[in-house]
């Protein structure tokens, strides 16, 4: 078989505009109109047991902005465990924490500094409504992560890694064609883009002054490689149209990140879709690597590796179906 694209090349621009402009724009407009949406974020509550439990019940009953309010156990009702509440917010175990001290005139809400401003404001507003329901006022305080880092740096690094991966794939395709002529050349493409990803990761970890340089470099390297492999896989099946589609799908969701928005707080259905995207996995891993927040569990790594496996399997299948290329 020849390497003629399975879809007309003129679809490239249309697919790029659809995936990279129209859908992200629709998500941005929807988010702007509806505001940030909470999806069960953890809110810790420290205070007298009876009051804290009732506050948690009222918070969990707010169906419009659902949260997962949890009471922090304390051995002394007169002295709420404010240190434990602060530690949970700083580590990313909770998005916010409310400290109820009946010896004071009002309560205090500790909000994670890494949250987008609109999300933080929504948490404060909802918590203020709960405090007001039992006659208390609320004072807000932002809590920095264990490793203070600019809030947008992880998102910027995700955008950089994705962009480098897309450019690498486009360069390889322009040089050697969309499908490798042999299995050895196909493996060389994968190895070459992975090696380039390692170089990018090492540079990023060094220039960013990461507290976890090895983890940061690895996350960026894998993100570059996965992005490049997905573009190569799409192009091997759809030709130039695949390049446009994959580029749009990879770069389109990055635009909100550059504006300081977090896709985790988009309304449905965008939030559900984004949870499965490689960009989201890379963002969570870099937030952990650079800021020390949250737990970079196996889910994010499994998600990235799953996308890598899909790309590799697609490339293998495409070469078997269309084994010949014009340029060996």
Quick structural overview:
It contains twelve helices and five strands. It has 328 residues and is of the alpha/beta class.
Q: Would you spell out the secondary-structure blueprint of this structure?
A:
Blueprint: H1 11-34, E1 41-46, H2 49-60, E2 67-72, H3 82-91, E3 96-99, E4 106-112, H4 117-133, E5 137-143, H5 153-176, H6 183-208, H7 213-238, H8 240-251, H9 254-258, H10 270-274, H11 278-291, H12 298-321
Parallel strand pairs: 1-2, 1-3, 4-5
Antiparallel strand pairs: 3-4
Helix pairs in contact: 1-8, 5-6, 5-7, 5-8, 5-11, 6-7, 7-8, 7-11, 7-12, 11-12
Descriptive report:
The protein has 328 residues and is an alpha/beta fold. The chain has 2 domains: 11-34 and 151-321, no CATH class; 41-115 and 117-143. Helices cover 61% and strands 9% of the residues. The chain contains 12 helices and 5 strands. It has helices at residues 11-34, 49-60, 82-91, 117-133, 153-176, 183-208, 213-238, 240-251, 254-258, 270-274, 278-291, 298-321; strands at 41-46, 67-72, 96-99, 106-112, 137-143. A 5-stranded mixed beta sheet has the order 2-1-3-4-5, sandwiched between helices. Helix 7 runs antiparallel to helix 11 (278-291). The longest helix has 26 residues, at 183-208. It is elongated. The chain starts with 10 loop residues before the first helix and ends in a 7-residue tail after the last helix. 46% of the residues are buried. Residues 1-7 and 324-328 have low confidence and may be disordered. This is ABC transporter permease. Keywords: Membrane, Transmembrane, Transmembrane helix.
